[in-house]
Amino acid sequence: MCGCMHSSRDPELHLEGDPSLSAAPTSTLAPRKMPKSISISKQLASIKELKKGSDLEKAIATLALIFRNSSDPDGKLGKATAKNLLQTQFRNFTEGQETKPKYKDLLSELDEHTENKLDFEDFMILLLSIAIISDLLQNIWSVKIMN
């Protein structure tokens, strides 16, 4: 892979929200956390720039909010939190991948990450890398487009 790191989720955080929502990134990933009781969908709704945002913008904003809600005050994710996020928030992409060499390599890179924490860029690279090798992506590609 590219040598960049990846991430997962804090089990103590209660992140609700419609998984079908997509989102665009907020202007910055401030290290402060949103209150745990506010769902992702409500957090997205509070960003007025996203009211008319595209599905892709909303998807990226959702990723940014989940990352920020799970990160430490320095805006980074610990390895355990990153792995938990993969298991809880990205499970449809990770299920069935455990025996694949590429997936094992990605998790190995995560374990070997020297900084022990992931920034947002590393988190995004991890998610994209796992999505690319997943069986779910193959199913998505095979969906017929209706006109």
TrEMBL record:
GO terms for molecular function: calcium ion binding; calcium-dependent protein binding; transition metal ion binding. GO terms for cellular component: cilium. The lineage of its organism: Eukaryota, Metazoa, Chordata, Craniata, Vertebrata. The gene is SNTN. It comes from Ailuropoda melanoleuca. It comes from the Eukaryota. InterPro entries: EF-hand-dom_pair, EH_dom, S-100_dom, S100_Ca-bd_sub. Residues 7-17 have a biased composition (Basic and acidic residues). SUPFAM superfamilies: EF-hand. This is Sentan, cilia apical structure protein.
